C-alpha cells in the first residue's frame, strides 16, 4: 500500500494529468469504405464516447486497406492449418481543415483454417472482428493523445 501511495504522491507533484479524465473527445470519424470500415468506425465512435457529426472540433479520416491473409502453418500434404489476417489503416486528424497528425496502424490475428467451409468462415470472421477491435483501440489511443497534445500546445500559446 505504501508503494502505491508514494507513486501517487510522486505523480501528483510532477504535473501528471491523465488523458481520459473528464475530457470531451469531440471527434468526427468520417465514413470508412466497406463492411470492415463500418465496424472500425463504430469501434472508434464507442472509444470516443459516441458518434459526432461533421461539426465536431476534430475530423478523423481513415483509409482502411483490404485485409491481407498469410499462411502460417502447413501440413505435410501442403494444406494450410493456420492463417493470419493483417489489417492496415492510414489516418489523418485535422482541425478546421488543417492536419495536426497522421499515421498508420497495423493489427493482425492468427486463426485456425479448417476444411469445413462454415467453420473456416466463422474462424476468419472472428479473426477479422478481433483485428478491427485492436485497430480501433490503437488508432483511438493515438488520436486521443494527439488531441490532448494539440490542446496543450494551444493553451501554452495563450
Characterise the protein shown here:
- By secondary structure, this protein is α+β, with helices and mostly antiparallel strands.
- The model has no long low-confidence stretch (mean pLDDT 83).
- The protein has helices spanning 2-13, 34-47, 117-157; strands spanning 27-29, 58-64, 68-74, 80-95, 98-112.
- Strands 1, 2, 3, 4 and 5 form a 5-stranded mixed sheet that branches.
- It contains 3 helices and 5 strands, in the order H-E-H-E-E-E-E-H.
- Helix 2 links the parallel strand 1 and strand 2 (58-64).
- Helix content is 42%, strand content 30%.
- It has a single domain, classed as Double Stranded RNA Binding Domain (2-Layer Sandwich), CATH 3.30.160.150.
Topology:
Blueprint: H1 2-13, E1 27-29, H2 34-47, E2 58-64, E3 68-74, E4 80-95, E5 98-112, H3 117-157
Parallel strand pairs: 1-2
Antiparallel strand pairs: 2-4, 3-4, 4-5
Helix pairs in contact: 2-3
Name of the CATH homologous superfamily: Lipoprotein like domain
Q: What's the alpha carbon Rg, rounded to whole Å?
A: 20 Å
Structural class, by secondary structure, is: alpha+beta
H/E element sequence: HEHEEEEH
Q: What overall geometry do the principal axes of the alpha carbons give?
A: elongated
Amino-to-carboxy terminus distance: 40 Å
Percent in strands: 25-35%
Average pLDDT level:
83
Low-pLDDT runs of 5+ residues are: none
Task: Name the helicity range.
Answer: 40-55%
| CATH architecture call | 2-Layer Sandwich
Amino acid at each position: 500500500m505504501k508503494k502505491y501511495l508514494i507513486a501517487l504522491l510522486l505523480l501528483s507533484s510532477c504535473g501528471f494529468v491523465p488523458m481520459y479524465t473528464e475530457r470531451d473527445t469531440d471527434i468526427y470519424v468520417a465514413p470508412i469504405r466497406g463492411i470492415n470500415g463500418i465496424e472500425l468506425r463504430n469501434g472508434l465512435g464507442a472509444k470516443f464516447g459516441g458518434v459526432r457529426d461533421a461539426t465536431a472540433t476534430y475530423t478523423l479520416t481513415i483509409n482502411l486497406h483490404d485485409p491481407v491473409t498469410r499462411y502460417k502453418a502447413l501440413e505435410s500434404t501442403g494444406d494450410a492449418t493456420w492463417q493470419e489476417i493483417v489489417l492496415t489503416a492510414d489516418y489523418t486528424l485535422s482541425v478546421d481543415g488543417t492536419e495536426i497528425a497522421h499515421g498508420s496502424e497495423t493489427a493482425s490475428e492468427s486463426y485456425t483454417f479448417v476444411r469445413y467451409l462454415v467453420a473456416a468462415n466463422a474462424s476468419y470472421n472472428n479473426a477479422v472482428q478481433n483485428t478491427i477491435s485492436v485497430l480501433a483501440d490503437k488508432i483511438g489511443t493515438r488520436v486521443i493523445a494527439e488531441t490532448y497534445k494539440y490542446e496543450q500546445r494551444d493553451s501554452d500559446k495563450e
